[in-house]
Amino acid sequence: MGAFLHSNNVGRATTLFDEMIKEGVFLDSMAYFTLISGLTQVGKLDGAYSNVSSMKKNGFRVDIKSYNTLISGFCKNKRLDKAFEIHDEMCKVGLRPDIFTYNTLIDALCKVGDFSKADKFLSEMGDDGCKPNVVAYGTLINGFCKAGDLDRAMKFFRSMMYKIYCPTTYTSIFKGLEDHNIFEKAFKLMDKMSSWGCKPNYVTMDVLAERLTAISEIERLRLFVQRTSDIDSGNLDV
Fold first, then answer.
1. Is 180 found in the same domain as 148?
2. Which among 136, 153, 183, 226 counts the fewest CB atoms within 10 Å?
3. Do residues 67 and 106 both lie within one domain?
4. pTM of the prediction?
5. CA atoms of 1 and 13, how far apart (whole Å)
């Protein structure tokens, strides 16, 4: 089944699944997950979800991995109502959303501009005992920057600095500040970055090199490179 689904031969995969049932082959949870995951990957989301119902009907407990696969699939296809319906269903059967669940939903909400609900989910993560990570904060920061709301982006950036040691999402902030010609704040952030021992990666350096060269701040870029070049490579990249 996995091979047929991987080659986008959905019809053959589902036929094989039906043959297994007809021949009395015992279907374990892995067989169901293979079909659910494969159908989701090729965009057959309603078919994938119907197999979750079949799985429960046949006495199998749907695990967090299967639910997350479906949630991710519906989010990627911009069917957020269904994604949240599955999230609610998962909670009702006693499964707690994990970091992947939250990050997937926060990312989807940011992409459609529903930042208030994304912020609400970030708060719920902590209340649910699932500590927000850099990905969750970075998703919101990046979303606010793209929306031009730099004040809220900086608010979440400061919150992340307070809660997570050595944050790793400077690049989005730099892009946002420089796109709006707020270079003084970008310069201050560069100074903080080097003082905190956060080593830039090539993406951050590309952004800074392009923007600072354009405004003739080559010397400032040179000093930044000099200060950060001695940072131990074991530190978190930005």
1. no
2. 226
3. no
4. 0.67
5. 5
